[in-house]
Design brief:
The structure holds two protein chains of two kinds. Chain A is mainly alpha-helical. In chain A, strands 1-3-2 form a three-stranded mixed β-sheet. In chain A, helix 1 packs across helix 13 and helix 2 crosses helix 13. Chain A is globular, with a radius of gyration of 25 Å. Chain B is mainly alpha-helical. Chain B has two domains: 61 residues, no CATH class; 219 residues, MetI-like (MetI-like fold, Orthogonal Bundle). Chain B contains 16 helices and no strands. In chain B, helix 6 packs antiparallel against helix 12 and helix 9 runs antiparallel to helix 12. The longest helix of chain B is centred in the middle third of the chain and has 32 residues. Classes of the chains: A mainly alpha, B mainly alpha.
Chain lengths: 315, 310
C-alpha cells in the first residue's frame, strides 16, 4: 500500500469499487432482502412497511401495502394444509440431490477414471460424454420430450407401450415424471462431473501412482487408497457443484411442465417463481421459500469457503 | 501449497501425452470391460441428440403415422428447420442473445480481472474477505435472489436510451447487469488464482521502472492472463447464452427474450408440431455446438481452472 501514489489509490478505488458495488447491489442486497421480506406480507403494490404489523381481516381483493407478518410465512409454508406444494417440493429437491450424489457423480467419476487411463478411444468418449454439458437445459428438456413421447417416442416404442391404451406417460404421471426428468438431468450432470474429475486426476502426481503399482496394489486399491484421497480438493468442488446444482434445478422442470406446476414435479425453485409471476404476487411468502433454499445452500458454500480460504490463511 | 497451484490451461492440452506415458498394458479382461462400458455409455449419451436430429429432419406427417422410431418413410426434409425459422421471430431472438451475451461477457471479464488483480497483486488487508464476498455470491442459488431482485428491477427507472420499458425490468440492460453480477464471483475466483502464479519479480521490476497501478493491471497483468481470459470468455459465453432463469423471470415481453428462454414460448407456439420444436431447439444450439467443436479445449480449461484450486 505504501508504494501507491495518490493516482494509484484512485485507480485502486475504481478497479475495486465498481465491481464490488455491482456485486453488493445485485447479489448481496437481494440475498439479505430475501430474509427481511420473508417476515412480511406483501402483494407488491403500495410499498412495504417492515414495522407495521399486519391487521387481521381487511377486504379481500383490495391491495394492501406490505406489512410485518412475523413468522407467519414460515408457518404457512410448513403447514401442508395451507401449502400442499411445499413438502413435495422439499422432498423432490432432496431426491434430486440424492440422485446426483448416488448416480450422476459416481458415473462421472467412473468416466473420468477410465478416460484418464488413456484407453483406446478416450478422446471420442470424452467428447461425446461432454456434449450435454454444452447444451442449454431448455434444449435438453425439449429433445428428451421426443424420447418420452407417449405414442411416438423412443422409450415407449422400444418397450411396446406406445398404443393408445397402454402408453406410459413418462412426463405426466406424477409417480414417474420426477424420475424421467432426473434421467435427463443425470445425462448432463455426469459429463460435468467427469470434466471436473479429469482436471483433478491430471493434477495427481503420476509418480504416486507408479509407486503404488510398485508396492503391488491393483488398480482398484490404487484408486481408493492413493488417488481418491489426493483428490480431496476436487471432491469438495464436485460436492459443492452437486448440491448447488440440485438446489438450482429449474429449467428442465419449467420446460417439461410448460411453465405450470405439474403434480410430481414440484420444486422449491418453481414455487418461488410462481409467487412473483402472474396476477397475485406473494413477495413475503416467496421470500420465505427463498430463505429455506438459502439456509440449505449455506452448508456447501461454507464447506467450500473453509476448504479454500483456510489454505490461504496459512500462507 | 502444491494443491493451491492452479493448473495452467496449457496443461490440459498436454494431458494426452501424460496419459499415454501412464498407459501401461492393462490386464485384458479389465480393459475389455472398460471398453464395453465406455462404448455402451457413449452410445446411450449420443442417442438423444442423434434422435432429435433424426426427428427434426423428417416430415411431421411421416412421424405421426409411423412414430419417431421408424424408417424414414417420406424421406428427409429441411422444412421443419425453415418453418421454425420463418414462422417465428428466431432472427430477433438470436439478435437479443447477441445484444445480451457479448456486452455481458466483456464487462464481466473487465470487472472480474480488475478485482482479481487487486486482491492477488496489491497487498491489501481485506483481500480474503473480498474474495469470499465474490466467491460466495456466485454460489447462491438464483432463486434466493429472485424475489427481491424482481421488485428492485421494477423499482429502478432507467432513461429511455438504456431501456425502452423505462425500467430495469424487461430491459436488455437489466439482463446484462444481472448476468455480470452473478458471474463475477466465479471469474474473480479463477482469475485471482491465475494471477497469483505470475512471478512477483515481474511486478517488482515494473515498480522499479515506475509503472503505475493502472499500467501494472492493463499493460502487464492482462496480457499475461490471455489464456485464462480466453478460457473464461468461452465458458461465460456459453453460460450466459444458455441462461434461462434470469431471462424467464426478468424479461416479460416475448420478443425481448434471448433465444434460449424464447424456446419456452416457441414450445407453446408450435405445440402441435414436435418435429418443428426439435428443429427450433437445434437451431438455437448452433452457437454452443460451434463452441463445442472449435473451443472445447478452452471450455474444459476454464472448468479445470475453476476446480483445480483447492
Amino acid at each position: 500500500m505504501r508504494t501507491l501514489s495518490r493516482r494509484d489509490k484512485v485507480v485502486l478505488g475504481v478497479l475495486l469499487g465498481v465491481p464490488l458495488l455491482v456485486d453488493l447491489v445485485f447479489v448481496w442486497f437481494p440475498a439479505f432482502a430475501t430474509i427481511a421480506l420473508s417476515f412480511t406480507k406483501w402483494s407488491g403494490v403500495n410499498g412495504v412497511n417492515f414495522f407495521k404489523p399486519c391487521k387481521a381481516g381487511g377486504l379481500p381483493g383490495v391491495p394492501h401495502p406490505g406489512c410485518f407478518f412475523g413468522t407467519q410465512n414460515y408457518h404457512q409454508a410448513f403447514n401442508s394444509g395451507i401449502t400442499p406444494d411445499f413438502r413435495p417440493a422439499v422432498e423432490h429437491n432432496a431426491i434430486w440431490l440424492l440422485v446426483f450424489i448416488l448416480i450422476a457423480t459416481p458415473l462421472g467419476m467412473l468416466f473420468a477414471v477410465v478416460i484418464d487411463r488413456g484407453i483406446a478411444g478416450s478422446r471420442i468418449y470424452q467428447s461425446v460424454l461432454f456434449l450435454p454439458v454444452m447444451l442449454s437445459l431448455a434444449l435438453i428438456g425439449i429433445i428428451w420430450e421426443l424420447i418420452y413421447s407417449q405414442n411416438l417416442g423412443l422409450v415407449n416404442t422400444l418397450i411396446g407401450r406406445n398404443g393408445n391404451g397402454n402408453a406410459i406417460d413418462w412426463l405426466g404421471n406424477p409417480h414417474l415424471n420426477l424420475w424421467s426428468v432426473l434421467v435427463e438431468a443425470t445425462w448432463r450432470q455426469a459429463g460435468y462431473v467427469m470434466v471436473l474429475y479429469l482436471a483433478g486426476l491430471k493434477a495427481v502426481d503420476s509418480t504416486l501412482r507408479e509407486a503404488a503399482v510398485i508396492d503391488g496394489s491393483n488398480g482398484w486399491q490404487t484408486f481408493w487408497r492413493v488417488i481418491f484421497p489426493v483428490m480431496r480438493p476436487i471432491n469438495i468442488v464436485v460436492l459443492v457443484v452437486t448440491v448447488i446444482e440440485s438446489l438450482r434445478a429449474f429449467d428442465l422442470v419449467y420446460i417439461t411442465s410448460k411453465s405450470n406446476v405439474l403434480p410430481g414435479l414440484e420444486l422449491l425453485s418453481i414455487s418461488i417463481t410462481q409467487n412473483i409471476v402472474g396476477e397475485t404476487q406473494r413477495i413475503g411468502f416467496g421470500s420465505a421459500l427463498g430463505v429455506v433454499l438459502l439456509v440449505i445452500s449455506l452448508v456447501p458454500i461454507s464447506i467450500f469457503l473453509y476448504q479454500n480460504f483456510r489454505v490461504e490463511e496459512k500462507r | 501449497m502444491t494443491a493451491a497451484t492452479p493448473t495452467a490451461p496449457g496443461a490440459f492440452v498436454s494431458r494426452t501425452t501424460g496419459a499415454s506415458r501412464r498407459n501401461r498394458p492393462a490386464r485384458r479382461p479389465a480393459s475389455i470391460a472398460a471398453q464395453v462400458f465406455m462404448i455402451t455409455a457413449t452410445v446411450l449419451w449420443i442417442t438423444p441428440v442423434v434422435f432429435a436430429l433424426y426427428v427434426s429432419l423428417r416430415p411431421e406427417k411421416s412421424t405421426n403415422k409411423y412414430g419417431y422410431v421408424s424408417m424414414p418413410h417420406g424421406g428427409f426434409t429441411f422444412s421443419n428447420f425453415s418453418n421454425a425459422w420463418t414462422q417465428s421471430d428466431m432472427l430477433r431472438f438470436f439478435e437479443n442473445s447477441v445484444r445480451i451475451t457479448v456486452p455481458a461477457v466483456i464487462i464481466t471479464l473487465l470487472l472480474a480481472s480488475a478485482v482479481a488483480f487487486i486482491v492477488s497483486r496489491v497487498s491489501f488487508k481485506l483481500n480474503i474477505a473480498l474474495l469470499i464476498v465474490f466467491t460466495a455470491g456466485n454460489l447462491l442459488p438464483q432463486q434466493v435472489l429472485i424475489t427481491p431482485l424482481f421488485r428492485i428491477y421494477l423499482a429502478i427507472h432507467l432513461p429511455h436510451f438504456l431501456s425502452s420499458s423505462g425500467l430495469l425490468y424487461n430491459s436488455y440492460f437489466g439482463l446484462i447487469v444481472i448476468n455480470v453480477a452473478f458471474q463475477l464471483g466465479f471469474c474473480v475466483f479463477v482469475l485471482s488464482n491465475y494471477m497469483k502464479t505470475i512471478p512477483g519479480e515481474m511486478y517488482e521490476a515494473a515498480v522499479v521502472d515506475g509503472a503505475s497501478l493502472w499500467t501494472r493491471y492493463w499493460r502487464l497483468t492482462l496480457p499475461l492472463c490471455r489464456p485464462a481470459l480466453a478460457a473464461m470468455a468461452t465458458l461465460l459465453t456459453t453460460w450466459i447464452y444458455n441462461d434461462f432463469f434470469w431471462a424467464i423471470t426478468l424479461i416479460s415481453t416475448g420478443n425481448k427474450r434471448p433465444i434460449t428462454s424464447a424456446l419456452a414460448n416457441l414450445q407453446g407456439q408450435f405445440v402441435s408440431n414436435q418435429n418443428m420444436i426439435a428443429a427450433a431447439a437445434l437451431i438455437a444450439a448452433i452457437p454452443t455446438l460451434v463452441v463445442y467443436v472449435l473451443l472445447q479445449k478452452q471450455f474444459i480449461a476454464g472448468l479445470s481452472l475453476g476446480s483445480s484450486k483447492g
